[in-house]
Design the sequence.
C-alpha cells in the first residue's frame, strides 16, 4: 500500500525499523520517522494509554522536568505574552507553571479538553511530549503557523531520533501512541520550510521562532 509522509507528503521513504508490533519508515525528504499507517492506534486505545499517566501538580520531579522548558523559553518572551499549551493533558501542569510565571496561558487538548482553542494569535505555543503522538503532523504544524504571531515562538519537548542503531533499542518507540519521531534534521527541514529560526538548547528541547 502506497502512502505519503505525514509531515511533508513525500512518497519517497525507506523502511527504518521493524519489530513484532510495528513497521517504521523514514522519509527521504524531511527525515521524519513514522509508523506504518496501518499501525496507528484508535482513539479509544490512545485515551486508555493516556489515562495510565500519573502526572500531577504534586509531582516535584515532573514539575522540574517541565521547568526546564519554561527556563529555556521565557527569556525570549515579553511579560504580556499570550501562550497556548497545545496538548496539555488531563493535568495542565505546564500551563500552571507558565501562569505562575506571569504569562496568560490557554490550554488545548483533543482528548481531555478544552477541545477548542480560544484565541487566534499566540506569542508562544508549547508542546511537551505531544508531537510524537501526531498522526498528521503536517496538519498540526499548519495550524500552529496560523496561530503563531509574527516573531512568536514554538517550544517543543520530545525525544529525538539519533540513529537507526539506537532507535532499534529505544524504549521511546515502544509506547503504542508514539507514532511520529523527529530528529535535528527534521526540525531543520521544518525551519527551512516554514521560515523559522531554530535553537536546540537541550537534548529533548527545541525552540523555533517565526520570522514573519
Sequence:
Amino acid at each position: 500500500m502506497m502512502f505519503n509522509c505525514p509531515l511533508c507528503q513525500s512518497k519517497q521513504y525507506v523502511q527504518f525499523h521493524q519489530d513484532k508490533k510495528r513497521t517504521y519508515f523514514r522519509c527521504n525528504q524531511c527525515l521524519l520517522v513514522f509508523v506504518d499507517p496501518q499501525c496507528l492506534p484508535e482513539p479509544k486505545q490512545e485515551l486508555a494509554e493516556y489515562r495510565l499517566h500519573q502526572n500531577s501538580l504534586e509531582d516535584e520531579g515532573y514539575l522540574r522536568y517541565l521547568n526546564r522548558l519554561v527556563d529555556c523559553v521565557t527569556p525570549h518572551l515579553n511579560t504580556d505574552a499570550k501562550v497556548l499549551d497545545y496538548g496539555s493533558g488531563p493535568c495542565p501542569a505546564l500551563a500552571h507553571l507558565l501562569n505562575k510565571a506571569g504569562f496568560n496561558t490557554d490550554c488545548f487538548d483533543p482528548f481531555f479538553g478544552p477541545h477548542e482553542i480560544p484565541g487566534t494569535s499566540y506569542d508562544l505555543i508549547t508542546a511537551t511530549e505531544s508531537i510524537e503522538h501526531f498522526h498528521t503532523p503536517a496538519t498540526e504544524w499548519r495550524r500552529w503557523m496560523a496561530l503563531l504571531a509574527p516573531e512568536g515562538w514554538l517550544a517543543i519537548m520530545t525525544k529525538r531520533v539519533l540513529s537507526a542503531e539506537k532507535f532499534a533499542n529505544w524504549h521511546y518507540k515502544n509506547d503504542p501512541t508514539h507514532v511520529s519521531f523527529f530528529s535535528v534534521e527534521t526540525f531543520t527541514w521544518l525551519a527551512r520550510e516554514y521560515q523559522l529560526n531554530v535553537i536546540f538548547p537541550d537534548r529533548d528541547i527545541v525552540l523555533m521562532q517565526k520570522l514573519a
About this structure: The first helix runs from residue 43 to 50.
